[in-house]
Amino acid sequence: MRPFSSPSPFTWVTCTLAFLPAVLTTPLPKRTQGVSMGLDTDFPDPSFLKAQDGKWYAFGTNGNGKRIQVASSDDFSSWTLLDIEALPTLSSWETDKEHYAPDVILRDDGKYVMYYSGEAKSDIGHHCVGTAIADKPTGPYVPSDTPFSCRLDQGGSLDPAGFEDADGTRYVTFKVDGNSIGHGGDCNNGIAPLVPTPILLQKVQPDGVTPIGDAVQILDRSTADGDGPLVEAPSLVLHDGTYFLFYSTHCYTDEAYDVRWATATNITGPYTKTNVELLKTGDGLISPGGATVCGCGDRMLFHGWCDDSKKQRCMYHAGVDLSGQTANIV
Ligand SMILES: *[C@@H]1O[C@H](CO)[C@@H](O)[C@H](O)[C@H]1NC(C)=O
């Protein structure tokens, strides 16, 4: 069904008065059960955490005049966009444009570490992952002088997300933006030869920002899996001994954009794709993706086009149930 479509007209044949109240009731727009809009404004690629003050804070891609947007909520249901620039200063490697997909962790020393993507001065149109540190969840986040990952020869680095393993070891997942150096077409990777868009896992020191060893690949796009031009937006969660890697497939502009998950019993993989669309276009959602699932495993934020004009990506929240190798929206 088309998102936000009005109810189909019914044919007026014969109707007793007793039926009238029921058929004249205007149904609410149908939505995927368990999914609700949290911010009716442009707030793409949302991530979130519960801060030391007990509130939820969400972070979004540049929009509403901010490089990095921040919203807060007491109950994960009612959200307020804050008039705060979370990243008021820039690092020397980045331009003032295109700050994408921030993710924030609370470090053991009480500081907040933001991972984000910024445009590389040395390679306009391509991105590096940077890190920035703050004393409060709303910032100001002070960026590191050096990028965390660039890989510009492979297209750049994007979509970082922090992860803390059961033993406290910290990792960062991110996407190698291969399609930015693809050969054109769908998200610049629709024309053969298609290029890889790997999801990498980088172990880091307890400071959250210093890499330990080399990053390892844990996922990639595959035509056989129906991923379209890319996989992106990783979000890693551990539940009952199973690692759940949530990700989006297809171009974010496309109605085929979605949220899927893969599972593994070892953090480094191998990850088995379920190829199940946890969220997809329909039932009031348009191109849902860019999801983050919290470490608690029971809730998520994601974005979808606010309406058919496809100009802004609104933030949605949903409940998640993880069981065995399976994820469900609840
Ligand atoms: C996970 O895989 C890595 C790489 O193969 C291996 O070194 C490590 O021992 C594995 N960990 C567990 C808990 O099996």
TrEMBL record:
Question: What CDD domains does this protein map onto?
Answer: GH43_ABN-like
Indicate the secretion signal residues. 1-25
Catalytic-site annotation from UniProt: 45 (proton acceptor), 232 (proton donor)
| Any one Pfam family match given in the protein's UniProt record, by short name | Glyco_hydro_43
The answer to keyword Translocase applying to this record is no
Record InterPro entries: Glyco_hydro_43, Glyco_hydro_beta-prop_sf, Glycosyl_Hydrlase_43
Q: Has keyword Lipid metabolism?
A: no
Highest rank taxon of the organism: Eukaryota
Q: Which GO terms describe its biological process?
A: carbohydrate metabolic process
The UniProt GO MF terms for this protein read: hydrolase activity, hydrolyzing O-glycosyl compounds
Sorted alphabetically, which keywords does the UniProt record give?
Glycosidase, Hydrolase, Signal
Site annotated as Important for catalytic activity, responsible for pKa modulation of the active site Glu and correct orientation of both the proton donor and substrate: where?
159
Provide the family line: Belongs to the glycosyl hydrolase 43 family.
From the Swiss-Prot or TrEMBL record, give the protein name.
Endo-arabinase
